[in-house]
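User: Predict the complex.
Assistant: Input components as received:
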Amino acid sequence: MIIDAMFEGFGALLTWPVPAYILLGTVIGLAAGVVPGISGSVALALIIPLTLTMDPTHAVALLAAALGGTTFGGAITAVLLNTPGTPDNAAVCIEGYPMSQQGKAGEALGITALCSAVGAVFGLAVFTFLTPVMREVVAAFGPPELFMVALFGLTIIASLSRGAMIAGLVAGAFGLMLSYVGQSGVALDARYLFGEVYFLSGIQLVPAIIGMFAIAEMIRLAVTGRRISGGGYIEPGGAWRGVRIGLSHPWIMLRSSVIGFGIGAAPGVGGTVASFVAYSATQQSAKDKSRFGKGDPRGLVAPTSAADAVDGGALMPTLALGIPGSPSTAVLLGALILHGTFPGRQLFTEDLDIVFALVGALVLSNLLTSVIGVATSRPLARLTTVDVRVLVPLVLIVTVFGAYAVRNNVGDIFLALAFGVIGYLMLRFDYGRIPAIIGLILGGLVERSFHTSLQIGGGSPTIFLTRPISLTFLVVTVLAVCLVIVRSMRSSGGAEPSEQDATTHRS
Amino acid sequence: MGTEKQHVTDAPPARSGGDDDTRNQIELNRPGARSRGLAVLILLAGTIALAAHTRGYSDKARDFPLLTLAVMGGLLVLQGILLLFELRRQAPAADRGPSTLGRELKVAGWIGLLGVSVFLLGLMVGAVTFLALYLAANRAARPVIIALIVVLSAAGLYGLFVTMLQVRLPGGLLL
């Protein structure tokens, strides 16, 4: 039955006009990913009205293709401008942007294109393989497991702060504090509003990321008057070299894809955490760590593979239980329901062909975006040589439009500008911006899942120890922290001299 | 002293100088010990202000989110350690050079102008006005090219956000 549905679903993608829809969706997704603030969920929301009169399979193909294109689109600006087009691409900036500064933008885009395709195909292949046991796997993740996954995610702060540990931890705690602004997820009490109703919904992630990365970077460029790519130099033939470099790290691609898929399957954790965890794992396991933060291709392979593998994982809770694994899949879920396709048992019995059509369209769109990425890498890389006196104001106005467009809220523009100044100050004084963003992303999830777990466990924290997956993540978290401490002590001889040389982890 | 360069690039300098803007390129100096200590103090004051702010909340709001309090306490302790560290550090006494600080203040002024122009003139008119002023003030190109960039940008932004994405752009206080 599954094989029949697979042939039916994949076969539907070859009938006209589905290929045209896939191409259209891919281009829309790619374009949406490039504009900061316009993420996959916004792109899908815009497309839904176009699909109302379509056959469900055609609609699914168009929507899935748009979803597949956004992650790579967001990585393009992360590499070229240190401006993640979507939050999932924030980790791409750490190594991708330094590569652009060294004139290796084409190479970085080649790596990104390859790993994006490999990660997505891996995630969707595992999704297909797990179809028969989907519901059981997803149901294993409750609030205690989510809390432990999020807690594990927070340990990345320590590994990313190598070289400036205390400042990194302060930045992480600062991000956590920011995540507590607004209504508490459990008791619904409002905190840190300072009399402003705007803060009731909390610090919005997209304007915060736009400010901390895009606007802060534009401030730095304006202050230095320096082009992104050093003296305007770009290494020729970079994209194919990037593809070859990516292929020379199959283990990192595989491990990161597994991480991306696993974290994607946990509802509400998302691609941003997955890409940071994958980056951290790669950094921790590397023998030579000296190039990390300065444009190490390994650090680019990991987050791009993970961010795209998330889609396959996120489809599991979305389609099996109706619990969206990410904002994009939440909108996708709404679109499916609109077309009379309901998640759960019905989808995995009667409408299984639609599931495979969705998977096939995602695979094709990811492959297509990567081909487009490699083909256009050279002209795209030229962006890094544009005169900063023109680039800075142009990027600034696009980012304020992007910050506004997410919620149509003027307050988000001013929040993005404020975070731009904060981000620049953090850059100047060596407070890592990545730890702050991780804290901001994970704070809400940590708090919500912690309190819900305690409520489930009757107020006893032993609930975290009695569930196998939760306990496993707890052990892994403790081991990760111990590893960071031991390595830090070994490298510094027990002292804390690292604060004096924090140039490697300014991202 | 105070002139240690931030790593901006270690790319091969394949093409050098010649352009107008290369003469204006500067390096960011590392902040001195006093600036760094001041930065920690400002952070610390902000955290204490946040902590003080919670005193006005209901008991439920103040006590129930245990993690909030734990994070705040941890942040205060970490900042205290960092402050001690910065005070003890044997770092260059000299702070940033006046040229860097001057440029930073100038750019901060431009960011402020963007905010004010959006607030007063609305998003579309405010952003485009900012673009025109920035390009003109920095002599980024010939006037005709600047006008072309501004018109094309306005058309592009309108086409993308208003026509395609159907975003309702906000008006300003004056427009």
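Chain B touches chain A through 82 residues (CB under 8 Å).
Let me know if you want any component modeled separately.
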